[in-house]
Amino acid sequence: MSKKTTKYVIVGGVASGATAAARIRRVDEFAQILLLERGKYISYANCGLPYYVGGVIAEREQLLLQTPELFSTRFNVDARVETEVVNIHPTDKTLVLRTAQGKEYQENYDKLLLSPGAYPFKPPLEGVGLEGIFMLRDVEDSDKIKTYFKANNVKKVVVVGAGFVGLETTENLHLAGAEVSIVEIEDQILAPVDFSIAAHVAQHLLQKGVHLHLNQTITHFSRSQNQLEVHLKNGQTLKADMVILSVGVRPEISLAQKAGLKIGEAGGIWVNKFLQTSDENIYAAGDAIEFPHPLTGKPWLNYLAGPASRQAHIAADNMVRGNMCTYPGSIGTSIAKVFDMTVATTGLAAKHLQQLGIPYESATIHVTAHASYYPKAPPICVKMTFHPQNGTLYGAQCVGFSGVDKCIDKLAWVVQKKESVETLIHLEHAYSPPFSSARDVTTIAGYVASNVLHKTMPVFTWEEVANLNLEKDILVDVRTPAEFERGAIQGAVNIPVDTLRNRLAELPKDKPIYIYCGVGKRGYLAVRILMANGYSQVKNLSGGYTTYAVATAPVVAPKT
Asked: What's the pTM value of the predicted model, to 2 decimals?
């Protein structure tokens, strides 16, 4: 007697959906697999859309990783595009499908995977539907933007939202020849990272001629003299030939809700550790699900391609083989190219730890991405957050012009393994002057964090500078006189570190002394000298004057 063929139905043919279909076929050659996608395309590279809009990716076909025809042939999958699932009936394990022509019919399943993704949020503002206002989420959106851009000779663009996608879109529209302004409701760009890291990217954008309107709310859109007008709450009106809305996405949960599946407290489809929903025959993966964060245990929404792909593999294996594989969760490691600069983050930033009420310490370093004596050694900044007692690394952020990807990947491993910052000191790395230093970026970060952890280098942050009372606190700049003249923190006295031992008499031992240098290294030396000579109230500025200067620099448009 032949074994009954299992029928697997997957809702959503992009990213995790297509990945799961291919995985099921590799595991079970004889399964019946039905892949349903309401759009025209499956398995396309949506992360590449901004680069297609800007012309960096020249041909749209490069974004289409698989056509429905090729996917169907290679994996023996019944891939149906422009087919929407309008209802799921879990009791009898059936689906109601609707074609592009409006015809409805039913299909049954043995196991079902939901991979509906997320949809872009469209703010409910007056005029948001005007011609020339777009969102960028799929291939069809990018086609519309490119066509409109060329047909209307677009010269000015307003991008609403300064997240990763908004900044990537900004760069690519700038490369295409447009003058770009960004409107962001928060007081910084790149909400996932801390202010001091985002400030590096903000200054870089200004240098490139991008106009930043931070801490601004849009009241409405209108048209005047064939141009769009973006009206801000502060009374300012920005003129534009095109507007791109990039204000975030929301999990697509409507189908799951109609089917009576459990929705979690973060607003995504609830799944267990096997990626199984509240119905034992229905699994879910990708942007639509929520899952506990490995560090906090709290459910969160994580819109990243890497975790979605891993979820697809796990869900597929569990659907075919039974619940054998568990999903450990994602710490949220992401990276973006913004013109010549790269910014990346992993784990929990200081701002998120503050929101959660979790105590932490932090350390910031500025070094070069490879040996400083090798030509064109680019700067790189790393900020880490960690447990104040045992040093468990909570999160890290990197910004620079080279080596950021390598750096964040090593830091992500330590965060994921819940290891101490001191683990960074012992990680082995490849060394050659064009690629790194004998002490790698992450090694130096480990040493600095270890000094903070063990109180051999007490620190203060750039935010705390504003709270200093210079009538009782002493602020000392230990850089050279020439550096001090080029720019210093107001109220500081200049005592270069190389003269400090001979000038100890100038510093009282009964007052708090706050030290800073360029990036923190000379400040650390000064702290050690003072502590060895009986000074007990000494702190070093984390990240030095470099961090302070970037974080406090005004965000203004460049002079034209």
From this structure: 0.94
